[in-house]
Amino acid sequence: MGLNDTPSANRLHIGFFGRRNAGKSSLVNAVTGQDIALVSDIAGTTTDPVYKSMELLPLGPVMIIDTAGLDDEGELGQLRVKKTNNVLNKTDIAVLTVSAAEGLTDFDRELLAKIQKKQIPFIIAYNKSDLGVSKSIGADESSLFVSAKTGENINELKERIGGLAKTDDTKLKLVGDLLKPSDIAVLVVPIDSSAPKGRLILPQQQTIRDILEANAVSVVIKETEIKETLAVLGKKPAMVITDSQAFKRVASDTPLDIPLTSFSILMARFKGFLETAVKGAAAIDGLKDGDTVLISEGCTHHRQCEDIGTVKLPKWLKEYTGKELNIKTTSGTEFPDELSEYSLVIHCGGCMLNEREMKYRMQCANDAGVPFTNYGTAIAHINGILKRSIEIFPDLLKEIL
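^ that's the sequence the OP posted. Answer follows.
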């Protein structure tokens, strides 16, 4: 899969962290072979995280993130530090950049402790080794002396980063592992005012690609064409996968002997939080008047008049529960540090967030004792079809219901 084929959420996220003027940006440029980060002798030049999608051998498609110095000062500096801390939550591999002339400072050790607490694989890069510093410190398998200026050990650093990466050999498929060659999967894709013009959304694209890689067949239809399509196929589909918004109609039009699920439920499994999402959906039944529900999206987009996060889902929640609920919404990188005010978090499928960040958000909710679910799972529960929607995962069904 090439550079333009790989969504950012599926790329390995490599974050460069450290104090101001440790040479993070210079090291990023040396590792990537591109001038993607602004370099200056003035401490604190990098103000906001810089993201760059690229191919990095031997890893393939990656997301390189250059961050502001975590020792930045002042009120604005603290905002930058907060953004940098947020990057840690989506980082798969951390490169702690340390000035070789100074060695590990107390600040670096504190940062390293954060990285280790989050169980992020890391390497310590002692930069500026060309300045004639002693290389006796930090000489172990988790550290390396490098020079962004001369190129010393830059290739070795890439190899070390590659060695920290998880292989895709056992990576879960979105749906391909549930299908056999020549199986038919019917994908229901509503085309309404909230659908993007001229294209399919990312989960739909990824599902089609996954089906193709499984040597199976995808049939893409609108929600008004289910009965007619099933009648003319000539072969019973292995499953029907629907957009969550059309769950109710699709469930009524799909015979019970055909497995039914949604893109959002498949994405929850892919991101590693389906079990939590199913358990979290049960909390909908316990909502009371005055409870606050957080509806959070991982991407930012122009809100349409029938937007699911801000319009449809709040409406369905209030109709189902019959309660006066306070609904709060966030999008993109916004996610509250404090969740104790919420009785429930309903997150989108997370197609634009990598697995690590989705699990971080889920863990934040768990730590606060707040139930956590996602759009598709919540909508299936509201429509009374959650059990049917996860029947394709019998182990999960047995454990939870």
